[in-house]
Amino acid sequence: MDYNNVYEQEIDLKDLIFAVLHRWRMILAAAVVLALLLGGYKALRTYNHNNDDASILEAKAQYEKDLEAYNQRVSVCEREIANLEEDIDRQEDYLENSILMNMSPYDVWEGKTELFVKTDYTIMPELTYQNQDYTATVLQSYQSALTNAQFMKDVAAKGQIDARYLKELVTVTIGKSDDGYNNLLIVQVRHTDEKLANQLMTNILEGVNQSESRIQSVIGTHTITQVNKSLGSLVDLSLADRQRNEREQLALLTDSLAEKNTSLETMEKEEMPKPVESGSNSVAKSGIKYGVLGGVLGAFAVMFFVCVIFLMSDKVYSAKDLKSRFKMKVLGILPTDKKKENPLDLLLNRLEGHSVGKDIEREYDLIATNVFHYAGEISSLLITGSAKEDKIASVAENLSKRLPDMKIVSGGSFLLEPKSLKGLSECDGVLLVEQKGVTLYSEAEQELEKIEDLHKKMVGCVVFE
């Protein structure tokens, strides 16, 4: 007889899962009991706490404090949202109406005029103390006169331009050399149109003439003369960078507004403190919350216990284990009892692969046929095993009816009963009867070793599941 006595145990996850599911009554009972205990305990604690005057006052004070802090956070967030909306409106208006922002960087009309300022200052080599040179002051005065807000407003009115956007188009600088000012006042204007750029330059230069007499009377005598004047189209890639930066700024403001709105919604939904609840409401919520927690813990504890028992147990769980571990021929599988199972157990048995509603008589007919084929010339057969005695006797009785030409001897486990061991030596073949949850794998291995030692033919086994 050949069987595998060097077996490395493997865990069948399917068997483990069904072993847990078949204990659903125990799991449900533990979940209900622990839910009632934990939920009831927490509800009682909450009830006692809610009826304490000091606790009530403390809870109300804490709620008011939390509510004040919450309102402050909401107020700050709403102000930030309002500021961002204003910034976005201003930025959109700027991008839409600014002449500079709507100017093509590849077609910029630029006018440039250079004005030379000459004063009566001369260096007197023979004198230790020289006259004061007020040329720089004159240049700065013209620069201030051409860029002050009132002058810009007047020029903008003539050109029907918003003064805010005109300032971007006009640049007035003082020319400088390595050793100081070079007496040049440089005026630059930009526009999208050649004529408008020229008109804008004309209006700016009118301000020079208007300011000349006033500056002479306040600072000193001087002359201001136009040296160079030009007007042409050019490409300014730095303008393209500035336009892109302004549009990116609008995108950043829009993203910030979306984030702030999301933060405000989250704050209103999740962070708003809840008022002190009435005693019955808080007791019910606390009891339900901890009741659910207790139910989960109870179910988990039982499932963990079942898994540990399954992994540590040496008892036979299914016929396929006997077949894979010991290479035993399983001639038939019989139900352990005939009690009526509920629909859930029937469903689990179907999912696990057990035959539900099996015809017992037909199964015994199949077992008898298998015994007849595998027995060969055996004339006497010992029905033994580690199953309960009534199961062994039932198999022997049913096989005797179906195999009248064969001597059927029934006996208990020959590992425990001398009479059964004696019957083993007198019979030609052996049919083992094993039972799920009763037979141990170690017992089945010892039975096979004993049968092999006595040189008896192992016909197969019948398993009660």
Largest β sheet strand count, sense and barrel closure: 5 strands, parallel
Q: Could you give the order of strands across the largest sheet?
A: 5-9-8-6-7
Terminal-residue CA separation: 25 Å
Strand/helix succession = HHHEHHHEEHEHHHEHHEHEHEHE
Radius of gyration: 52 Å
Q: In terms of structural class, how would the helical and strand content be classed?
A: alpha/beta
Strand proportion = 15-25%
Please state the average pLDDT score: 85
Tell me the helix content.
55-70%
Shape: elongated
**Stretches where pLDDT falls below 50 for ≥5 residues?**
none
- How many helical stretches? 15
Tally of strands: 9
Blueprint of the fold:
Blueprint: H1 13-21, H2 24-50, H3 53-97, E1 108-119, H4 135-147, H5 149-158, H6 163-166, E2 170-177, E3 180-191, H7 194-218, E4 222-234, H8 237-271, H9 279-312, H10 319-326, E5 330-334, H11 343-352, H12 360-375, E6 380-384, H13 389-402, E7 407-410, H14 418-426, E8 429-435, H15 441-453, E9 457-464
Parallel strand pairs: 5-9, 6-7, 6-8, 8-9
Antiparallel strand pairs: 1-3, 1-4, 2-3
